[in-house]
Amino acid sequence: MTDDSRPLAVFDLDGTLADTAHRQRYLERRPRDWDAFFAAAPHDPPLAQGVDLARRSAQECEVVYLTGRPERCRADTEAWLARQGLPPGRIWMRRNDDRRPARRTKLDTLRSLARKREVRMLVDDDELVCDEAVRAGFTVLRADWAHTSESLKSAQEQEGRT
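Below the sequence we write its predicted structure tokens.
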């Protein structure tokens, strides 16, 4: 159950809460192996800084998750969040056929959320998502505690996959 009076703390998953380093290799080959990339997600180690921040944020905010992962990954994502002891919260995911850049899909969702609730902050590792959110007036904490390969950055922007 949610308390609609609490502000929202919006957390990205990959590169913010989940360490994707072990699966980025699937994006370095041509063609990129998206099925393998997402199939390996349940084995992501948690990123301690992001997990700790989400837990602390839950004291004042309702924590929700905004990811570029496709909807077909929902069950694995929910199980991963629960295994990490992260605060329960709604998860917004990309439609399986949505290939728009993450900066567009995520900003659309943020704006929709902000029409109904205060968005206290967005925590994300994608520089372009962060830049767009700041330009739109959102408070952003850039998750700079994980290494993101150039292949993943390119995939986020050009292929609209995560």
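The chain has six helices and five strands.
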